[in-house]
C-alpha cells in the first residue's frame, strides 16, 4: 500500500510560497493495494463457461481522515496474452458495482495485446481500445468504461473487491496486483483568509 | 478472438464431409524417416528465448494442434540449451482443438489450464474423455487435469535460474545451462502425445515403452507452430513445430540399435519409436551486399541431439561434451565458390582455435560467424561424436536447422533448412564427396 498523502504537504508548500490568500481544496490520492488474493490466475474462458477471479482491497476507516471523499480510480497490474478479452468490475463494500474495464467488440479481437499496467478513472482522454503492440499494451491513465462516480461519496471504509473475467477463449494470464485509488478533499482552512498574523 | 458464425461452421463441416466422400486420400502421405510435415507423435520447438528483464525483448509462443477428431494429451517438456529437462506440463487438446502456450507467461508462473471438462466437444470432434492419472483440480471446470493456480515462487525462480545459466536451489545450487551474460532464458521444448498425465521427463525409465505403451503414446496426431516475437524491433518470425512421427512397425523406428529421436534416453533400443531428425542440411543465408534486405542478417537456428540424459552440473564450466564441433560447415557464395569453416592454413603462423559455431544443444548463430560472403547457402554437416552420446558410435549426430531472416520493423520469417541426409543414411554429404 502506498500512501500519497504527501502530496498535500507539497500543495501546502506551494500555497505558502505564493502567499495565496484564497481558500484551496487539495485532492491527494491514497493508493490502497491488494490485500487479498493477489497474485491470482485469470482462468481462460472455455465455451459457455467463464470463471471470475476476485481480489480484495481493505480500505481503512480513516482513509480520508480530516477531509471528504472526492471519488475513486483503480489501478490494474495484469499479465495477460490477450487483454481485449478482459472484463473488470469494482465492487464496493455495499455491493455497488462499476464495470471499469469492458471487453472489446469482436470478442477481444480489437486488442490482442499483452498486459495491463494502467490507472482507470473517469474522464481520461485515452480509452481501453487504444491499446498498443508493446508490453504493456494498456498503460498510463485510461478512461473507465462506466462512470466510477456512480459509486457516490459515501464512506469508503470496508473491503472492496475487483472481479476479473476472461470473456473469450484463448489468451491466458493473472492479476499481479491491483489498487483502489481514493481521492480525498482536504480544506486548507488555515489559509482561508490569507496569513493570519494576529 | 474471432468466432465464426454457426452457419459458417455448418458449411465447413458439410464441405469436409463432401471432401471425405470424393477425395482419394484426405490424409497427408506420411513416411517415416523423411522429416515430412505431417501430424506426428512428437513435436520439437528447436529453440526459444524469453527475455526475463524486458517483456518487449525476445519472447516465444507456441501452439499445439490436434489434427484428430479424438481428444489427446500432449506432454510438453522444457529443456535447457545443454539438454537438461527442467519442467513438464500436460495439455489436454480436444479433437480438432488447439492450445497456445506463451513461454513469457510460463516463466512468470502462468501455466495453461486445459481440461476435458472445460467445454463441450465441437461438431467434428468426438466427446471429451477423462485422461488417466490426471489429478482432480479444485475447480470443477478443470477437473481431470492438473490446474495449478500458478507456479510457486520457488518454481518460478528455478525455471528462471535453470534457463539462464544460474545456480538453482532445486538443482542443489548447480547450473543447467550456458551463461550468456544476460537474463534471457533459452532452451527448447519437446511435446509428446501421451497416454496419461505425468510429471516425468522423456529421460525417465518407463516414459517410452515400445508400441507407445508408456507415458508417451505413438499417436501421430499433433502439429503446431511457434513464433519468435521481438516487440522492441517490431518483428516476429513463425515456423512449424518439427514433426517426428512414431511407428512401432517401421524398421527405422522399431529395430534395436536404430538411431531414433530419443535414442539416447532409451539406450538405443528404439523403444521410443520416433523417427530421427536429419544430420546434414543446406540453408540459404543473406548477410550483406546487394541482397541485404535483411537487417540484422540471417540467423541460423540449430538444435543438436543431447545424445544422453544430461543433469545439472557445477557452475563455472560446461559438461565434457561441450562445446560441440561438427564434421563440416561450408559456405557457398552466389558464384558457387565454397569456403569450409576452419580450413584455411595459416602456416607458418599458428592455426587459430576452431570455431564452435553450434557449440550447444540449441542456439541461434549469425550466419556471419560461418560465412565470409554476403549471401549464398550453407552446407551444414553437424555430425560429431561428443563423449557419452549413445547413438553416435557411427559418427552421426542428429540435428535440426532452420533459417531466421528478418528486417526489423517490417517482416520476419523462419524456414526449415533443406534436409539432405539423416542418421539412417550411409551417405553423409560433405564438400567434394
Q: Which parts of chain A are unreliable, with pLDDT below 50 for 5 consecutive residues or more? A: 1-24
Biggest beta-sheet profile of chain A = 8 strands, mixed
Query: What's the number of extended β-strand segments of chain A?
Result: 12
Q: SSE order of chain B in H/E notation?
A: HEEEEEHHEEEEHEEEEEEEEE
So what's the overall shape of chain A? globular
Distance between the amino and carboxyl termini of chain B: 53 Å
Radius of gyration of chain B: 22 Å
Q: Helix proportion of residues of chain A, in percent? A: under 10%
Tell me the structural class of chain B.
mainly beta
Radius of gyration of chain A: 19 Å
**Biggest interface and its residues per chain?**
A-B, 31 and 27 residues
- Quickly count the helices of chain A: 1
Quick recap:
The complex is a heterodimer of chains A (198) and B (433). Chain A has one helix at residues 6-18; strands spanning 2-3, 25-26, 29-33, 40-42, 52-59, 68-80, 86-91, 97-101, 116-121, 138-143, 158-166, 173-187. By secondary structure, chain A is mainly beta.
Overview of this structure, please?
The complex is a heterodimer of chains A (198) and B (433). Chain A is mostly beta strands and 198 residues long. Chain A has 1 helix and 12 strands. In chain A, strands 1, 2, 3, 4, 6, 9, 10 and 12 form an 8-stranded mixed beta sheet that branches. In chain A, strands 5-11-7-8 form a 4-stranded antiparallel beta sheet, with no helix packed on it. In chain A, a hairpin with a 5-residue loop joins strand 7 and strand 8. The longest helix of chain A is centred in the N-terminal third of the chain and has 13 residues. The N terminus of chain A is likely disordered. The interface between A and B is medium-sized, with 31 and 27 residues.
Give the topology, please.
The complex is a heterodimer of chains A (198) and B (433).
Chain A (H helix, E strand, L loop, with lengths): L1 E2 L2 H13 L6 E2 L2 E5 L6 E3 L9 E8 L8 E13 L5 E6 L5 E5 L14 E6 L16 E6 L14 E9 L6 E15 L11
Parallel strand pairs in A: 9-10
Antiparallel strand pairs in A: 1-3, 2-12, 3-12, 4-12, 5-11, 6-9, 6-12, 7-8, 7-11
Chain B lengths: L5 H17 L19 E10 L6 E9 L5 E8 L5 E9 L4 E5 H4 L46 H10 L21 E11 L27 E9 L4 E6 L1 E3 L6 H4 L25 E7 L12 E6 L23 E5 L5 E3 L21 E5 L8 E7 L17 E9 L3 E6 L1 E4 L12
Antiparallel strand pairs in B: 1-6, 1-9, 2-5, 2-7, 3-4, 3-6, 7-8, 10-15, 10-18, 11-14, 11-16, 12-13, 12-15, 16-17
Amino acid at each position: 500500500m502506498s500512501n500519497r498523502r504527501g502530496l498535500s504537504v507539497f500543495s501546502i508548500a506551494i500555497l505558502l510560497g505564493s502567499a495565496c490568500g484564497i481558500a484551496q481544496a487539495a485532492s491527494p490520492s491514497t493508493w490502497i493495494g491488494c490485500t487479498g488474493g493477489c497474485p491470482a490466475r485469470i482462468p481462460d474462458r472455455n465455451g459457455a463457461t467463464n470463471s471470475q477471479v476476485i481480489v480484495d482491497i481493505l480500505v481503512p476507516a480513516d482513509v480520508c481522515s480530516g477531509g471528504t471523499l472526492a471519488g475513486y480510480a483503480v489501478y490494474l497490474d495484469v499479465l495477460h496474452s490477450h487483454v481485449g478479452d478482459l472484463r473488470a468490475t469494482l465492487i464496493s463494500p455495499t455491493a455497488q458495482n462499476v464495470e471499469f474495464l469492458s471487453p472489446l467488440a469482436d470478442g477481444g479481437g480489437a486488442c490482442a495485446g499483452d498486459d495491463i499496467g494502467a490507472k482507470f478513472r473517469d474522464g481520461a482522454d485515452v480509452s481501453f481500445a487504444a491499446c498498443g503492440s508493446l508490453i504493456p499494451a494498456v498503460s498510463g491513465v485510461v478512461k473507465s468504461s462506466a462512470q466510477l462516480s456512480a459509486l457516490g461519496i459515501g464512506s469508503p471504509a470496508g473491503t472492496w473487491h475487483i472481479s476479473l473475467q476472461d470473456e473469450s477463449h484463448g489468451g491466458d494470464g493473472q492479476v499481479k496486483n491491483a489498487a483502489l485509488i481514493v481521492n480525498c478533499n482536504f480544506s486548507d482552512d488555515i489559509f482561508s483568509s490569507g496569513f493570519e498574523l494576529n | 478472438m474471432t468466432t465464426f458464425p454457426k452457419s459458417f461452421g455448418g458449411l465447413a463441416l458439410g464441405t469436409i464431409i463432401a471432401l471425405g466422400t470424393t477425395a482419394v486420400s484426405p490424409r497427408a502421405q506420411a513416411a517415416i524417416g523423411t522429416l515430412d510435415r505431417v501430424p506426428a507423435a512428437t513435436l520439437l520447438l528447436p529453440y526459444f528465448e524469453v527475455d526475463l528483464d524486458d517483456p518487449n525483448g525476445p519472447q516465444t509462443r507456441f501452439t499445439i494442434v490436434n489434427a484428430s477428431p479424438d481428444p489427446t494429451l500432449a506432454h510438453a517438456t522444457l529443456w535447457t540449451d545443454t539438454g537438461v529437462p527442467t519442467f513438464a506440463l500436460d495439455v489436454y487438446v480436444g479433437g480438432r482443438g488447439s492450445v497456445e502456450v506463451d513461454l513469457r507467461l510460463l516463466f512468470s508462473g502462468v501455466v495453461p489450464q486445459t481440461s476435458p471438462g472445460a467445454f463441450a466437444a465441437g461438431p467434428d470432434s468426438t466427446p471429451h474423455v477423462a485422461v488417466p492419472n490426471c489429478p482432480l483440480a479444485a475447480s470443477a471446470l478443470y477437473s481431470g487435469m492438473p490446474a495449478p493456480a500458478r507456479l510457486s515462487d520457488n518454481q518460478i525462480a528455478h525455471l528462471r535460474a535453470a534457463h539462464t545459466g544460474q545456480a538453482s536451489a532445486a538443482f542443489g545450487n548447480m547450473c543447467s545451462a550456458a551463461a550468456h551474460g544476460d537474463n534471457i532464458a533459452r532452451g527448447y521444448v519437446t511435446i509428446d502425445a501421451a497416454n496419461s498425465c505425468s510429471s516425468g521427463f522423456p529421460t525417465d525409465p518407463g516414459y517410452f515403452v515400445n508400441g507407445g505403451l508408456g507415458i508417451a503414446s505413438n499417436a501421430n496426431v499433433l502439429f503446431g507452430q511457434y513464433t519468435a516475437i521481438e516487440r522492441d524491433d517490431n518483428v516476429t518470425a513463425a515456423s512449424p513445430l518439427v514433426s517426428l512421427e512414431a511407428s512401432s512397425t517401421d524398421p527405422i523406428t522399431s529395430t534395436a540399435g536404430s538411431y531414433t529421436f530419443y535414442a539416447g534416453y532409451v539406450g538405443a533400443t528404439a523403444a521410443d519409436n520416433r523417427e530421427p531428425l536429419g544430420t546434414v542440411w543446406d540453408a540459404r543465408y543473406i548477410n550483406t551486399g546487394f541482397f541485404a534486405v535483411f537487417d540484422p542478417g540471417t540467423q541460423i537456428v540449430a538444435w543438436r541431439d543431447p545424445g544422453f540424459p544430461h543433469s545439472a552440473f557445477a557452475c563455472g564450466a560446461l559438461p565434457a561434451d561441450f562445446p560441440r564441433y561438427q564434421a563440416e560447415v561450408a559456405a557457398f557464395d552466389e558464384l558457387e565458390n565454397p569456403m569450409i569453416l576452419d580450413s584455411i592454413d595459416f602456416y607458418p603462423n599458428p592455426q587459430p582455435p576452431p570455431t564452435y559455431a553450434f557449440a550447444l544443444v540449441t542456439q541461434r548463430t549469425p550466419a556471419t560467424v560461418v560465412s565470409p560472403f554476403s549471401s549464398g547457402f550453407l552446407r551444414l554437416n553437424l555430425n560429431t561424436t561428443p563423449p557419452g552420446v549413445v547413438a553416435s558410435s557411427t559418427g552421426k549426430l542428429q540435428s535440426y536447422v532452420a533459417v531466421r531472416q528478418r528486417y526489423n520493423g517490417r517482416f520476419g520469417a523462419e524456414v526449415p533448412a533443406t534436409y539432405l541426409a539423416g542418421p539412417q543414411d550411409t551417405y553423409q554429404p560433405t564438400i567434394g564427396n
